[in-house]
Design goal:
Elements: H1 3-21, H2 33-57, H3 59-69, H4 97-132, H5 150-169, H6 175-193, H7 209-228, H8 230-233, H9 239-265, H10 271-279, H11 282-305
Length: 320
């Protein structure tokens, strides 16, 4: 609890003790004109005590919002909004800019986590379609699902467009990070609107717009993951926690770029080896692992930004 919140609560407790210790609220003083005034003073102290407790509970949340929205708390004693309102004011009338920032930050974090879950479900949906439901043949790569039945094709285009819009609208913590995210977003859209050739990707090495967009997308996300994440890591005071997140980001970035590199390098082997990889759907698994690594990074980064969130999607940590 913040030291100022603790001080305000202790002041109100002392005020209540003083009022009750005066033996003023006894039956013999019920007709005293000051009885009502003293009773109202006691109610005000109780109200302030409850308001300051809520303010204390929001302190950790407020610091997270300041990091997300670039709002810096002023130095010195924070004011309690509730003390400036009468007892007749409703909770809705007590909304403050901090409450609005809390709402915006919460929406921002849920959108981040939702995008990570959407990306994780992307390859999984095609696996379910092919291996469990048997709707389509198991394709040699994720990109080849563009040429399958309508639901799978629509899913391929829709998810890529959703990720593209999110990354383009998302604001990085620096101009360089913002440009990288924009480039990744436009590349995701390019993957949807410039599909792989219908004949597939089991031939030898070749250059296509689809392949270029795929490489640019993962390269931009890799740079954001391994370098840009340091902006927020420096704000973590706990050294062990900072090291854990840094290690997780390095693992995600290594898996991501490694899977993309394997997918590219495998195209330069002999024709027989390339055909063998196609038979075993190696390209699909390379792409799937890369997408899952991207989703894991985004999910973990959201957890770093808000330590009050549970690792379980859309749940908060239980209070101690």
């Amino acid at each position: 609890m913040d030291k100022w919140d603790k001080g305000e609560i202790e002041d109100d407790i002392r005020c209540m003790d003083k009022l009750l210790g005066m033996d003023f609220f006894s039956a013999k003083n019920a007709e005293n004109p000051l009885f009502r005034a003293g009773f109202i003073e006691a109610l005000i102290a109780l109200r302030d005590l409850m308001a300051e407790r809520r303010q204390g509970e929001r302190n950790v949340r407020g610091r997270i919002e300041a990091r997300l929205l670039g709002v810096h708390e002023p130095h010195g004693r924070p004011s309690t909004a509730a003390t400036s309102h009468s007892l007749t004011h409703s909770e809705d009338e007590m909304q403050s800019p901090a409450d609005n920032r809390s709402y915006l930050a919460r929406s921002f974090l849920i959108q981040r986590r939702g995008m990570a879950l959407l990306g994780a479900a992307f390859p999984a949906a095609f696996l379910v379609s092919s291996l469990i439901l048997g709707r389509t043949e198991f394709q040699t790569s994720i990109s080849m699902y563009y040429w399958t039945l309508d639901p799978e094709r629509n899913l391929f285009v829709g998810v890529l467009c959703a990720v593209a819009v999110f990354l383009i609208l998302y604001k990085g913590r620096s101009n360089f990070e913002d440009w990288l995210l924009d480039a990744a977003g436009f590349s995701a859209a390019g993957l949807a609107f410039f599909p792989i050739h219908r004949t597939g990707d089991c031939s030898g090495p070749s250059v296509s717009a689809h392949g270029v967009f795929a490489v640019v997308f993962f390269a931009c996300i890799f740079v954001v993951c391994i370098f840009m994440s340091e902006h927020t890591l420096r704000e973590i005071r706990d050294e062990n926690r900072r090291k854990r997140f840094r290690t997780l980001y390095r693992v995600c970035s290594g898996v991501m770029i490694g899977s993309v590199a394997l997918a590219i390098i495998s195209r330069f082997f002999s024709a027989d080896f390339v055909r063998s990889l196609c038979v075993h759907r190696a390209a699909f698994w390379f792409e799937a692992v890369g997408v899952w690594a991207f989703s894991a990074f985004w999910y973990i980064k959201t957890r770093e930004l808000d330590s009050t969130m549970s690792w379980v999607p859309f749940r908060r940590k239980r209070e101690a």
